[in-house]
Amino acid sequence: MDQKTETAPPPPKTLSATVYEDLRSRMIIGKLLPGDTISIRTLAAEHGMSAMPVREALKQLALEKALSGAAKRAYRVPDLTRNQAANLFQIRAVLEGGAAESAAQNLSPRDLDALRKWTRQMDAAWEARDASKFLAANFRFHSLIYSRAKNEELFDLIENLLVRTGPWLAQGILSLTSPDDWLGEHDAIIAALEARDAARARARIEEDARWGMTFFQG
Fold this sequence. Notes:
mainly alpha, 9 helices, two-stranded antiparallel sheet
């Protein structure tokens, strides 16, 4: 007699993992800006938990260099120099370009439609100078591409950099005097991916990430 294989449900998230993912999301979409202080008491109240799992999450983010602080001292979003921020965007360009090159043969027509949708959302958010909405759509756009590279280790490295640079990209958006100062590469990225042109996809992704490097090098 055939037996159906039952898939076990995923284990429940720990309290510290819940806070950890929430803070990463806030940094990716620019809800936290460089120099912002993280209140353990406020986070614990928001999540309805004690301070201990909040501290565990903050400690992990500090180990990943997404936050600065230790032990009983306050945690905050690192207030990097402009050169340090530019260096992070330079690393992003190299890693993201490689991921796009690997993903170029793996995106489906449905994936490309999703990328176009998020590009429209980014364009609307940019015109409105809504940094958080722009970065949320930007994260979905880039995450979909990099997930199709089928390299989990590379994806994790890139996501960590998106967390670390999110506050700085938001600050850059808010400081621009005109939306025209943004030279987005998203339509060109989609065109390269649709053509399955791996080299061109890499070049367009690298150029997109280097906007942050150029901006902060000033």
